[in-house]
Specification:
Structural class: mainly alpha
Number of helices: 9
Largest sheet: 2 strands, antiparallel
Radius of gyration: 28 Å
Strand order of the largest sheet: 1-2
Order of helices and strands: EEHHHHHHHHH
Helix content: 55-70%
Strand content: under 5%
Shape: elongated
Distance between the termini: 69 Å
Length: 209
């Protein structure tokens, strides 16, 4: 069934019963297991992989709106392709959920091991993925690399320690496993645009005001 969303709108609502598309034996395998799936798919035409299925939906709408002798058959074939895409996305959803869970585990590991200077291998192990997959996940979801993320989080922790403790800069550098105080100071300045000592003084001055 095809109907207009609004009278003045070019948008159309396409509805079909997937069980009517297949032989009962095929429906048991490819329709029934997916009927109770609560999900939606948001598609943008220019995105890779979306353009072809959107065109398929458009063709199904066109066939159902036509009067030709084979229009219903052609529309049914297009709807079969649409349903195939729908059930394929179930696997993609599970893959994405697994990826997000791996990323969550890696982020939690980094947060709890900032003072141990997490390595790429240990981060990947925490997420139960390979080092290359670890890098891909951070790039995909955070537009950064695992070690670059670690650096940012370590510098944030350093800033917190400078504000909330009386530890010396050398002690903080040692706590965060930096090889030398000068390396820590250089890294901190590159991240915060100010030296650790100046950062602490600036915070104390603001607090006094």
């Amino acid at each position: 069934m095809v109907e207009k969303i609004e009278e003045a709108s070019p948008m159309r609502l396409l509805e079909f019963d997937p069980t009517a598309l297949f032989h009962p034996e095929l429906a048991k395998r490819y329709v029934t297991p997916y009927l109770n799936t609560e999900k939606s798919i948001h598609m943008i035409k220019p995105e890779r992989g979306h353009q072809s299925i959107i065109q398929t939906i458009e063709r199904a709408v066109q066939h159902l709106s036509a009067d030709g002798p084979l229009a219903l058959m052609d529309a049914t074939l297009q709807c079969t392709v649409i349903w195939r895409y729908w059930i394929q996305q179930e696997g993609e959803v599970m893959k994405n959920e697994n990826k997000r869970e791996s990323l969550r585990l890696m982020l939690a590991y980094i947060e709890s091991h900032l003072e141990d200077k997490p390595t790429l291998a240990r981060i990947a192990t925490a997420g139960n993925v390979s080092r290359s997959e670890c890098c891909r996940l951070f790039t995909t979801f955070g537009n950064t690399s695992p070690l670059a993320y670690v650096q940012v989080k370590r510098m944030d922790r350093a800033a917190t320690l400078l504000m909330d403790s009386i530890e010396s800069v050398a002690d903080i550098a040692n706590r965060l496993s930096y090889s030398s105080v000068s390396h820590f100071v250089q890294t901190f300045k590159a991240h915060h645009s100010i030296t650790p000592l100046a950062y602490r003084k600036q915070y104390q001055r603001k607090r006094a005001e």
